[in-house]
Amino acid sequence: MLLRFSIAAVLGVALLAGCGGKSSAPTGSEPAKTTGTTTASKNALPADLVGTWRLVKPDPGDVVRLYLRPNAYTVSRGFAHAGQAEAKADVLTLTSVCGGSTVTGVGRYRWTLSGDKLHFEPFGKDECTGRTEVFEDATYERSG
Hints:
The chain is an alpha+beta fold. The protein contains 2 helices and 8 strands, in the order αβββββββαβ. An 8-stranded antiparallel barrel has the order 1-2-3-4-5-6-7-8. The radius of gyration is 16 Å and the shape is globular.
């Protein structure tokens, strides 16, 4: 019995580490965190962001598509990663289960839109480190 508990504890710590750990409290300049992925977002994305986007400079042979909906996002990069999305002014908040775990993580990115180009810059630390690969200093262009 003790062995099972020890294994479960080790796995739990490993899952938290894969997501970057527990959430930290937001500072005064950060928007409030969401509490889960099952409820609708209170701050829907602006209509200008809703649509299908393609990463401008992906790795060679890599095709990355970003699908933004009023309250959700999906990244398609050979596999799909999806979650809840909301916007408060120029900060996009993404909430999803961190890849391969059961831990829910939050990432915030400042966005700018210029014509058909959408650019993201990190706003604090993304709790799901894998998400940074497609959002940190990334520029997308509208593709649909």
